[in-house]
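Issue 218. Parser rejects a valid record. Input:
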Amino acid sequence: MYRERKIYSRPNIAIFIDGPNLLRKEFAIDLREVKKRAGKYGRVIIAKVFLNQFAPEKLIEAIINEGFESVISLAKGEEEETDIDVSLAIAAMEAVFTKNIDTLAIATRDADFLPLIQKAKEYGKQVIVFGSEPGFSSSLQNAADYVEML
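Output the parser choked on:
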């Protein structure tokens, strides 16, 4: 007799890391630890770190070695500061609209991502925010389903 077997799958997670905001020497963020902690909530299937063109090669290499994709944003002019927020927000919204993504994880301290978190929740996604002090936005923490201090 054939028995139907139910398959219980873990939620799929997309992680997006605000590199210039969090990957600083004073925070000593361990990407392996971020991925491990995200794994408590499900299976990480997208893992991206957003950087500007001034990121050192050793940092990019370390990011790749931890299984993350590095996404580099370029400044428009030589003296302009690069803001990766738009690139991260667009990639994260693509994940929100991807049916096989259940959970959005954002590592940042930046309150600019509050509308992104609100929109992800509106579309039924769980949201994890990874952050560190000082300067970790309380509005991000309050909007998230889960908060992980790094």
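Fixed in the parser; the record now loads. The two ends are 51 Å apart (CA to CA).
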